Please model this.
Amino acid sequence: MLGISLTERREAQAAADASALAGARALLGGESTASVISTAKSYAKSNGLPAVEADDQTVIAVAVDGDQWDGSVEVDVTKQVRRFFLGALYTGPWQVSAHATAETTDKSVNYILIALDRRDSMSMDEDNREQRQHYFEQYRIKR
Model:
């Protein structure tokens, strides 16, 4: 049961993070509060949460504060966890929750950008051997 709870918690956090970032991007784009909330909820649902918030199984709460130059989007996700065999011993609620905040600002700050390789172009398989060889030669990386 603990493993399922941790997995559900991780999924809820991923959805909350994606939702807050998408909402902040919409806020930065000058969209209305209603549009920012709609965008945030849409991203939460497309990142692992159920498409319908029915029967109090999943609750997505979005709060927008400020404007596009100095604002924030906060997302709270609460999700009921299936109890499986634990349901025979415990009939109360079993839930996980996650919180994420993304902010917009016009102030100059130091930051770092992390690019995730979702297309597997940097993987070490045989399909991209020529690409890797060119990369190693170009940047003189020693293996």
Summary: The mean pLDDT is 78. The chain is about 35% helix and 20% strand. The CA atoms of residues 118 and 142 lie 25 Å apart. The longest strand covers residues 70-80.
